[in-house]
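2 proteins. here.
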Amino acid sequence: MFGLDWESLIWIAIGFGGQGLFMMRFVVQWWSSEKAKQVVVPVAFWYFSIGGGLVLTVYAIHRNDPVFTFGQALGLVIYFRNLHLHYKGKGRAAAS
C-alpha cells in the first residue's frame, strides 16, 4: 500500500489512532453541551485530550518533527493542569 513497509503502516495507524482520540474530545464536548443545552466541558474532554496528545506526541517524536512534538507536548501540560484544577475544585466543594 503506497509503497510503505509494515513499520511505516503501523506508525501511520498509531498517528491516526491518536488523531481519533483527539477528535473524540470534541465529540464528547459537543454531545454534553447538546444534552445540557449550554456549553459544557466534561472531564472526559481532558482525558481524551491527554490520550490523543500522548499518542500524537510519541508519533511526532518518531517522525522527528520538532514543531509537532513541541505543540503536542505543550498541550499535555495544559490538559494535565486542567484535570488537576478540576479535581482540586471538587475537593474544595466537598470540604465546604
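next one coming up
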Amino acid sequence: MKKELRIFFTAMMFLTRLPVPRFADHSPDYLERSVKYFPLIGWIVAAISGFPFLVFNKYISEDIAIAASIIAGILTTGAFHEDGFADVCDAFGGGWTKEKILLIMKDSRLGSYGVIGMIAILFCKFLLLKELPKFTPDLQNPSLNIFYNYRYFLLTLIAAHSVSRLMPVLVMRFYDYVSDPDGSKSKPVATRKPTIGALLVAAIPALVPFAFMSWQFLLAIITVVYAAFSLAKYFKKWIGGYTGDCLGAIQQVSELCFYLCMIIIWRYII
C-alpha cells in the first residue's frame, strides 16, 4: 500500500504543483509506473477547478467563475499541458523536417504559433465551459445544495480531466517515443510502454463519472479517442512518434473535444 501511495504521489508531483508527502521522490521507476494514476490526478485538478466556479458563480458572475476555474486549473498543474500544446504549435508550425521540429520543440522560448495556440485554446475552453451550465436541468428548479444543482457540470469537469489524461496513456501504449531523452521532461515515463493492467487501472477513474450520467454521454469518449489518435498519427508522420510536449497537446485537445461532444449530446441527443 505504501508503495502504491508513493507511485500515486509521484504522479501528482509530475503532473501538478501540489505538495506531496516527504516520502515521495523522483524515482524513475515509480514515475514509469505512475501513468496509471494520471486520470485519477484529473479528478483532483477538476475538483480544484470546480470549487472556484461554484463560489464566484454564486457571488459574482458566471463569466468570472469560468475564468477563475480555468486559472485554478492552470495554477494547479503549472500550465504543464498548456506549455506542451504551445511548444507543439511552435514546432509543427515553424518546422518542416523532423530535426527542425524537435529542435524548436526543445526551445524554451515561445514563438508566434505558440502564443496564438495558447490564446486560441484558452478562448475555446472558456466558451465551451460557458455553455455547460446552460444544460444543467437543476438550474430550473434549484435546491439549496449548490453541489447538487451543478452536479452534471461538476461530473462533466471530472470526466473531462480524467478522460483527457487517459488519452496520453493510450498513445504511450501504441506509439513510440522520440526525441533526445536527456532533453525531455517525459524521459522516465517514456522508457517503457504502459502495460494492459496499467491501462485498465487508468480507465477506471475515467469511466466512473459516467455511472452517474446518461449512457449516451459515453459517445463522447469515441470522439475523444479518435481525436487523440488522429493527433498521434499526425505526430508519427512528421517525427516518427510522440514527445512529452505531444502528450500535453493531446491532453488539451482531448479536453476540448470532450466538452464539445458533451454539449452536442446534451443539446441534440438527450
